[in-house]
# Entry
Amino acid sequence: MQWLKNLFGVAAADPDVSLPPEQAAALEEWRKRPPEDFSQPHFRTRYVVVDVEASGLNMIKDRLISIGAVAVNGGMIDPLDAFGIVLRQDEVSSHENILIHGIGGSAQQDGVEPAEALLRFLDYVGKAPLVAYHAEFDQAMIDRAMKRYLGVSPDLRWIDLAWVLPELYRERIDAQVQLDDWLAQFGISNFLRHNAIADAYATAQLLQVALTRGAALGKESAQVFMDTERARRWVRRAG
Amino acid sequence: MSTNATRMLVDATIEALRRHSPFDRMEREALIFLAEKAKLGYFPKDSYIVTPEMGPVNTFYIIQRGKVLARQSGEINVTEYSSLTLGMGECFPIGSVMARRASTNSYVAIVDTFCYQLAAEDFVQLMQMSQQFNLFCTQYIATLLNQSRRQLQVQFAQRAAEQQSMSSPLSSIISKAPVSVGPETPIRQVVEAMVSGHVGSMVVVDENQQPIGIFTQSDALKRILLPGLSLDRPIADVMSSHPHALPEHAHVYDAALAMAMHSVRHVLAVDGEGRLKGVVSERDLFTLQRVGLRQIRQSIEGAQDIAVLRQAGADVRQLALNMLAQGVGAEQLTQFISALNDTVTRRVIQLNLARHDLYGIEWTWLSFGSEGRDEQTFSTDQDNGILYICPDIMNREELELRLLEFAQDVNRDLDAVGFPFCKGNIMASNSELCLTLEAWEEKFLRWIRVPEPQALLNASIFFDFRGLYGATHLADRLRMSLLKMVKSQGVFLRMMASNALQVQPPLGKIRDFVTDLNPEHPGCIDLKTYGARLFIDAARIFSLATGLYNTNTVQRIRLSGQRMGMASDETAAIVEGFNFIQLLRLRHQHFEHEHGRPGDNFINPDQLNELDRRILKESFRQVRKLQQRLKLDYQV
# Structure
């Protein structure tokens, strides 16, 4: 059914979720936005770097608590083009979990209604390519939340820096490592570790490095980054 | 956009910036503005961030982390460094972004570097919002200014290569340990020591080694031999007390200036505690100069006729040129020229007094205009007058006639020695300008009461009077009554202010400078009319308003600024601006003279180097600031 997904940009709606009219309209609005041309050079592309915080690390069981996002537009980070939201939780996450991301019980309960929060996120992202480090987790958490609260799985395209960076900087680290290892390579500091916005900001700076290096190596578009990532994953699996 | 995310990033940026100057002192509101407007960019190692070829700079960079190398481009160095490494929290290129010009430096990331980038419009707005940031940028320009002066020195140095530097410290030319004695030492012992030690002078010091007097060979003749004084008397009886002393790190030209101004042959060098470190004699300076001060002043003071003085006048100019070449600043230089020109003028007056009997008359020779302000440049004509007192027993008209005849001769001789007649007849031989104290006061009061355009113009010339010869205390009396008159007629200063504001600094809205104000000199700026005079006019008003006796523009700005509560770095920036314009004038006149042309004040900004152009622009901005202050103070 991939062709159908591509055709509508949204997977077939889950009949169990019925959105109020305004939210349905907002989703439709997002769906109708023209797709981005991923073959544009980096300096003409707006990337959205994403980081999420969840109630735990289990991609199936745990819930999405907050999303932080910072755009890299034309290679630059503009503080005015940043996004952060906490999703309202019916059930507050564990004490240990709160200690990690620092979003307390009342903050979780005072969060934005999940469907609304996800629609705002979609509106912020538009059709821009999303970037994360170890993107599977962020992608899975967001995707599952969208299915649950919006009843659809919007076709968002992801780039995983954990795969792209070793390809660009083989001479430095030619392996899958932690985000902090790459940040240390370029002296990038994180002003508030495990805060979705701060993590996204640090990752965005890493993307700036990657975009510049990519352009220098002829890997100069989002599409090429996605292809690079796929090829490397395939090689790793095959090897 | 999302407010909470933006706020977080802005806070993080503020935190990062605050670790560095000037952001640590920056106002909160301005910091928030900066952090919101600044975008973060990345520059890999070895990439160019700004180069001259990129054209006008429209982005201001603050290094978030990394290192950037600033390197001079082109063949001519405009700053003293050829390369400089900038680190975290440092900004560039301040001058170019202020002037919206291409940078003179190229900036290269030497490691992976992240920079906050601020658009030029936001940079300008930030300067307006934040006094601290404004100050930071202004001070930066001021250091550029110093560098430019040093640069000028380098450019001239080749020409003056055979001469040692006048700007080296005094300690560098003191060769011998100082010889000194206590005040109770008998004269005999002192003279013996001078003879056996082959020294021409002896310094008398107190128990703390601080100099209290000096005794020289020539004093021996006049003070001991002729009066037939006993050689057993203490040296304190015959020494000259209060010898001129300068800190040992003062420059050689400071000593030259002191010698020229106070007519002394020796200047003492002292350390921080005032203890004697050495003696600098005219002869020491003489070895530094092809045209020595000693020669010039001796020839001036001993001149018996005009021909000798004419040569001395030319020597003064040559000496001043040498000093310009050695990097002496405009302030010292114009003062120096004025001091030596004063000496020439005084000698001309003395020579004429021999032929005119003015005995028993209380009179003083006044100088006006630039000479009155102690800031003459190379091209200078006469502006003078006479102020006298007519006792009841004398016939005023007869007295005036005698003074006028005398003045006529002096004016003629001054013309002959190189100070051309004043085109506007502002000369002592003009009966309108050879007046009693009462008549001068009346004249001044008339201008102050009815400040029509001609009166204001007159005020701008005559109110800068200074007594140069004779009973100079009369000039002080005139100054005192002038200040009183101005104080009682509030409207006068207001008129002066609005008159001063008629001419604005030639800063263009689109181009940097307005250069088409004089059709005979297209592409040029008249730095006297549209530069120096604006400072001078404003300074005059401030000095009259605050009751200052000073006539010198720099002193007026410093002292009146202090009295008006202006920040000292603000006045310092204004003074630097004025001095820079004066320096450009001197340099230009120097070149004109070298090419056999009469020195004018028309400067073509396109022929200046990048740095000078930028500083000139900043100097004009400083005068605009001064004018805004006038506008505000007098509501015009």
